[in-house]
Write a structure and sequence with these properties.
mainly beta, five-stranded mixed β-sheet, Ig-like domain-containing protein
């Protein structure tokens, strides 16, 4: 038995007899209950329990029953040590040089051990590198990071690992200000001068900021910032006192501080002599006090008697160039006094006198104003004074004007008015408005008004013996009229009364007779009005034929008729004492002397009394309505339905108001949740909800005069599948939904997957709505593929679920490259999955690894490296991952070969050797020798050699210790970027392939060994032919 540390271990054996004793032992030592051991007996079962297993509990345990023995082997394993929250840890870190770098992980077990590696090399706890442990926390601390600390850091627990990618930013040397002592410089200047500040920096490319009182300054109309080499200059044109403050030239690492004080020029008022003589102004006029300053930018304050004056109301303070002014609008007597203009360094006083203005009439004309008014109208006389504080007096033609009902005195500001209402002829004359200094006359003329009728007579219709009044209204109260009848003048008498009330004129006739009918006229000197009097004589009304009683059946029409003389008699109808209003059911008609009332579709409630009224004569009749029989037009039909369905029984009666009742097996049915009774026109329905076996039987519908019945059969429901399950194919971590629809709602069912019942969980949702049933599976994995089945009653439906890996996509595609001839080109792309296979193609042809072509992968990266590129290697290179592909172009630039060292002339003695030497720009260039234009060939006296510069190893290999199943990197630096090397393991040469990856970048020569194991431990050599370096590789773990 294998268990993890901390789990419960249960060892159990069953005996043939319940009372048999047993003994437990471990490695021959008898065990007793207590401590971490529990011994239990239950019937024939004997148990040994270890509640929290530890490493010391491993071993062989024996249960001895005297006649038989059972042996158990227990192995307690250490739990797997995992790194917690790997997905949220920041694996890419960027830090500044000299900062402390802290890499921290949390383990699943507090006793777990970890090992730290940098670029495959194991790290030890040294002065700058610290390995710390605190509970489940494991930390790697590097103090004062340097550029060499950048790289890949691996934290390995034996069961889990995580890689951190670290970059270190090394700052440039600080910028200093040459000649700066750090002390503050003080400068003073007068307003208007230019302020120039300059400093010299240690580097010409350095960036500085100019600050004023802590705010950064930017070039503008007055501010100029200049840079010439290492010189930086700030110029402020025409400095002002507001420019005073602290100026700083800041280079981030150094600064120069200058305190600047700009003093203002003294202010002088240049027109003081103009203010020596007092100013006089008349009340109501405007006056302006002016002071001119030098310089013109100075500010002033205006005061009067110690009070500061500001713009507002009648005061206006202005500033324009060197001029400062104070304007007083509509001066008043109280505005006089001494005004002060204070400029700080200078001041001036102004003395103002305001003279009282005479009160005049501003709308007075040379000739007196004339007004013509109609008698009875209104006249308005208005005079406007020059000031508001003024009193006037009005004089009429005969006496002073006093306010009364017909004379109104009004004042509105400077406007004084006299209003005459209902002007009479005697109101004509001269009116005068008097003020202390002026007077204004008005001549009022009144034109007499003609006697016109505002409202004329109206025609009158009266009955014999009634009192009649004819009246009209004149345009004025004074005016005589004459009354005429049929052109004859009427005189007042017992039968005629003529009344005058204001502007109204009336003629009253008492007890009019037919002879009083005719045309009446009321005349004035200028107008007349006419009216006609009609006298009506009473007539005789007679009902020739009375109303007759009627008896009709329910639903029939009833018509009542009567004959009334004469034809123009007004006849009204009443039904049960209520007036009849014509409608669709109540029709009132008239044809000559015949008057009729028709009641359509009579109902029993319409029975009652019908009355007709002919101008006071009344005739009455009785209406009787007999109830109609209720019959079934459409009868019930036998029905067959399934359980849990709703069924509707329907009949149709002979008329809409019929009442029926429903019965089952002779028992009256009442409305409720089981039975729903409805009426619609002549239709009557009974709905039986959720049928069960007890609902079968005979149902009857009855009225007072008829009945109908039918049988209802209830059958067991037959559940079927309307929409079956469908196969689903999806990708890993996606969601799949299975749905089917049954013929009936509310049917319970069971979902299974590969024969195992599915229960709701965080990744599984089961739902049912109506006839539909659904199963939703979320965050699918590859192992979730299988068969999904739904079972309900005797039904069974299955479908297949297939979960595939998501298609491979390219996170980063290869980029176009341009390399020189014989150079190295590397195409790299990054895939969405680390285990995806790719193929590389050039112009459609698949590439295979070779001496100058390396194909390898690193995590999700896929790399194609071409060394010693030739012109023929130019073209299109494609990385094909099956689901996606990407291409990039390679451009090879032909190298430019030139002679570095020319041939030198040689003088030798006869018989000696002559050596000619030249040096080309590239060591692998083949050359030819010529003498006098002819090619020189190798012979016994001519030797031709081509030698390259010797290659030295500048930085040798270092011994490495790496973890098993990881990659090991061996790197050295050669003296020449084009130097060729070979790699040896022991004495055997290594070539690039799946196991080994060889990289040549500039002067760096690198050997990468993938998935190292114990068998890879050996000595590895980088051979540069002229030099070599050897290092030892050690592998930890298995």
């Amino acid at each position: 038995m294998m268990v993890s540390r901390g789990e419960t271990v249960t060892l159990c054996c069953e005996l043939s007899r319940a009372d048999a004793p047993v003994h437990w032992a471990k490695a021959g030592i008898r065990l007793e209950a207590g401590g971490s051991l529990v011994l239990e007996e239950e019937g024939a079962c004997r148990r040994l329990l270890i509640p929290a297993a530890q490493a010391e509990h491993s071993g062989k345990y024996t249960c001895d029953a005297a006649n038989d023995t059972v042996t158990f082997t227990v192995q307690v394993l250490d739990p797997l040590v995992k790194i917690l929250e790997k997905d949220v840890l920041p694996t890419h870190r960027h830090c500044q040089a000299m900062e402390d770098l802290v890499l921290e992980v949390h383990l699943s077990q507090a006793h777990g051990e970890v090992k730290w590696y940098k670029d495959g090399e194991k790290l030890q706890d040294t002065g700058r590198v610290r390995l710390e442990e605190d509970g489940v926390r494991r930390s790697l601390v590097i103090l004062g990071t340097m550029g060499t600390d950048a790289g890949e850091y691996l934290c390995d627990t034996g069961h889990d690992s995580i890689v951190f990618f670290i970059t270190v930013e090394v700052p440039e040397p600080p910028v200093t200000i040459v000649g700066s002592t750090g002390s503050i410089v003080h400068r003073c200047l007068v307003a208007g001068e230019d302020l120039v500040m300059a400093c010299e920096l240690s580097r010409p490319d350095a960036i500085v900021r100019w600050l004023w009182n802590g705010h950064e300054m930017h070039p503008g109309e007055r501010v100029h910032v200049e840079a010439h080499g290492v010189l930086r200059q700030l110029t402020i044109c025409g400095a002002q006192p507001s420019d005073s403050g602290c100026y700083i030239c800041d280079t981030a690492s150094d600064r120069m501080v200058t305190n600047v004080e700009v003093s203002a020029r003294p202010v002088c008022i240049v027109n003081k002599e103009e203010a020596q003589s007092p100013l006089e102004v008349q009340e109501g006029d405007s006056v302006t006090l002016v002071a001119r300053l030098s310089p013109e930018t100075a500010e002033v304050q205006w005061q009067k008697e110690g009070q500061r004056l500001c713009s507002g109301g009648r005061l206006l303070v202005c500033s324009e160039g060197p001029t400062r002014s104070l304007t007083i609008k509509q001066a008043e007597l109280g505005d006089g006094g001494i005004f002060l203009c204070d400029a700080g360094d200078d001041e001036v006083h102004f003395t103002l006198h305001v003279k009282e203005a005479p009160m005049l009439f501003v709308n007075k004309q040379e000739e007196q104003e004339k007004l013509l008014v109609l008698e009875g109208g209104s006249a308005v006389l208005s005079a406007i004074t020059s000031t508001e504080q003024s009193d006037v007096t009005w004089l009429g033609p005969r006496q002073a004007a006093v306010g009364s009902e017909r004379c109104e005195l009004r004042r509105d500001g400077r406007v004084h008015s006299l209003i005459l209402h209902n002007v009479a002829m005697e109101d004509a004359g001269i009116y005068t408005c008097l003020s202390p200094h002026d007077q204004m006359r008005f001549h009022v003329s009144v034109r007499e008004l003609r006697v016109k009728f505002l409202r004329g007579l109206s025609d009158v219709r009266a009955r014999q013996g009634e009192r009649v009044v004819l009246w009209c209204e004149l345009c004025k109260a004074r005016g005589d009229v004459v009354w005429r009848k049929d052109g004859r003048v009427l005189a007042p008498g017992p039968h005629w009364q003529m009344i005058v009330e204001g502007r109204e004129r009336s003629l009253v006739l008492n007890h009019v007779e037919p002879g009083d009918a005719g045309e009446y006229c009321c005349e004035s000197n200028d107008d007349q009005t006419l009216a006609t009097l009609t006298v009506q004589v009473p007539r005789v009304v007679d009902i020739i034929m009375e109303l007759q009683n009627l008896t009709v059946l329910e639903g029939e029409d009833a018509t009542f008729k009567c004959l009334v003389s004469p034809e123009d008699v007004v006849v009204t109808w009443q039904l049960n004492g209520q007036p009849v209003v014509p409608s669709e059911r109540l029709l009132v008609t008239r044809n000559g002397l015949c008057h009729s009332l028709t009641l359509r579709h009579c109902q029993p409630g319409d029975a009652g009394t019908v009355t007709t009224n002919a101008e006071g004569l009344v005739s009455t009749a009785r209406l009787s309505v007999q109830e109609a029989q209720v019959l079934f037009v459409r009868k019930l039909q036998d029905m067959v339905a399934e359980e849990q369905e709703d069924v509707c029984l329907e009949v149709e009666v002979s008329h809409e108001t019929a009442e029926v009742q429903w019965l089952k097996q002779g028992v009256l049915l009442q409305p409720g949740s089981k039975y729903v009774l409805q009426e619609s026109g002549c239709r009557r329905t009974l709905t039986i909800c959720c049928l069960g076996p007890a609902d079968r039987g005979t149902y009857r519908c009855e009225s007072l005069h008829d009945r109908t019945q039918a049988k209802l059969c209830v059958e067991p429901r037959k559940v079927s599948i309307r929409t079956p399950l469908a196969d689903v194919e999806t990708f890993e971590k996606e969601t799949a939904t299975f749905h089917l629809e049954l013929s009936h709602p509310g049917v319970p069912g069971v979902w299974t997957r590969d024969g195992i019942r599915v229960k709701p969980s965080g990744t599984c949702r089961i739902s049912a709505m109506g006839c539909g049933h659904s199963l939703t599976l979320e965050r699918l994995a590859l192992e979730d593929s299988g068969t999904v089945t739904f079972t309900a009653d005797t039904l069974r439906c299955s479908a297949h679920l297939r979960v595939r890996e998501p298609p491979v996509t390219m996170v980063r595609v290869p980029q176009d490259l341009g390399v020189p001839e014989t150079g190295v080109a590397s195409f790299e792309c990054e895939l969405s999955r680390p285990n995806a296979e790719v193929k590389w193609f050039k112009d459609g042809q698949e590439l295979r690894p070779g001496p100058n072509c390396r194909i390898y992968s690193a995590g999700r990266r896929r790399i194609l490296q071409l060394s010693r590129c030739e012109l023929a290697d130019a073209g299109s290179y494609t990385c094909d991952a099956g689901d996606c592909q990407a291409s990039a172009m390679l451009h090879v630039q032909e190298r430019q070969i030139h002679i570095v060292q020319e041939l030198q002339e040689v003088q030798v003695r006869e018989g000696d050797n002559a050596v000619f030497t030249c040096e080309a720009s590239h060591g692998d260039v083949k050359g030819e020798w010529f003498r006098d234009g002819e090619k020189i060939k190798v012979s016994s006296t001519v030797k031709i050699r081509q030698e390259a510069l010797p290659i030295r190893i500048v930085k040798p290999l270092r011994d490495k210790t790496v973890l098993a199943r990881h990659k090991a990197t061996l790197e050295c630096t050669v003296s020449h970027a084009r130097g060729r090397v070979r790699w040896l393991r022991g004495d055997t040469e290594i070539f690039a392939g799946d196991k080994y990856e060889i990289c040549n970048l500039d002067c760096y020569r690198t050997l990468i060994i993938h998935r190292v194991g114990p068998e890879d431990e050996d000595s590895y050599t980088c051979d540069a032919f002229d030099d070599r370096s050897t290092a030892r590789l050690l592998v930890e773990g298995s």
